[in-house]
Design brief:
Strand content of chain A: 15-25%
Number of strands of chain A: 7
Low-confidence stretches of chain B: none
Shape of chain B: globular
Strand order of the largest sheet of chain B: 1-2-3-5-4
Largest interface: A-B, 30 and 30 residues
Helix content of chain A: 25-40%
Mean pLDDT of chain A: 93
Shape of chain A: globular
Largest sheet of chain A: 5 strands, mixed
Oligomer: heterodimer
Mean pLDDT of chain B: 86
Radius of gyration of chain A: 14 Å
Structural class of chain A: alpha/beta
Number of strands of chain B: 5
Structural class of chain B: alpha+beta
Radius of gyration of chain B: 16 Å
């Protein structure tokens, strides 16, 4: 066994899908399954995704890489004119240094919490 | 820093199979040790992160997720530093120099890196990193200055 399943709780807010990772770690153990599940939502046609990481207090580089992969998947074929977006929210202050150290804080659309993320989409 | 914590941690050593789930348990133990050594929440996370990256690299690249291969991990307090030693009996690896950071500003999203952050994290967080690969054993020694201690 290499990895474990990633538990995700999903909730629909109109066109927006909120996927809350119900784990305390997003690491190499669950990152492949996490990526597969998020990819599944995108392939189902979800264009506006909020990934809620408020329950997560440890992210490693493989977990971060899976978030980058999800961003790349949703932004693929963006030149077709489709409006697609992933927003991250609820990032624990403890794990924020990982985003800063890798400069991924400049790449991702990061919002404080779920309400803030939903507000971003509603104001778009 | 608590002196009793230093003496308790001084000789910590553990052997584990090359398995990521097992590595998670070790990661939790590292967090506890770092708190006891006086590192704050942020430093503790970064140390735990760097060590988990090192362990993950070892399991993935040297041991190829083969559980029959083993990792030996040790924590030792020496003067003003805590020394983390990781040994594996996996395939002798290439050197562990971190890749050059990519110019993110000029990269399209499609070209963003999804991996290779780990080595940069290890080298950024630790004060020194030394990797010695041999035919039978890869040894990675990482040192981190203890908090609130003047250099001796």
């Amino acid at each position: 066994m290499i990895g474990l399943d990633a538990k995700l709780n999903t909730e629909n807010y109109g066109e927006i899908l909120v996927a809350e990772l119900d784990e305390d770690r997003l690491d190499a153990v669950i990152a492949p399954d996490f990526k597969k599940k998020i990819q599944g939502y995108i392939e189902e046609g979800r264009s506006f995704l909020v990934i809620d990481l408020s329950r997560v207090d440890f992210i490693d580089s493989t977990g971060l890489g899976s978030l980058v992969a999800c961003l790349k998947i949703i932004k693929r074929n963006i030149d077709t004119g489709e409006n697609k977006e992933i927003v991250l929210c609820g990032i624990n202050q403890k794990v924020m240094p990982l985003f800063q150290l890798t400069r991924m804080d400049q790449i991702f659309n990061i919002r404080k919490d779920r309400d803030d993320a939903l507000k971003f989409f509603h104001e778009k | 820093m608590k002196n009793d914590a230093v003496s308790k941690i001084n000789c910590f050593q553990i052997e584990l199979p090359a398995c990521l789930v097992e590595a998670r348990r070790l990661s939790e133990h590292i967090e506890k040790c770092c708190f006891e050594l006086g590192f704050d929440k942020n430093e503790t996370y970064l140390i735990e992160l760097a060590l988990f990256e090192a362990i993950n690299n070892s399991i993935k690249h040297a041991c190829k997720h083969n559980r029959s291969r083993t990792l030996k991990f040790g924590i030792e307090v020496k003067e003003n530093q805590v020394i983390f030693t990781l040994r594996d009996n996996g395939i002798s690896c290439h050197d562990l120099r971190p890749p050059k950071p990519l110019p993110l500003d000029s990269l399209s999203i499609e070209k963003l890196p999804e991996n290779s952050f780990g080595l940069n994290i290890i080298h950024t967080v630790m004060n020194s990193v030394e990797f010695t690969p041999t035919r039978l054993c890869n040894t990675l020694v990482m040192a981190k200055d203890l908090p609130g201690r003047d250099k001796l």
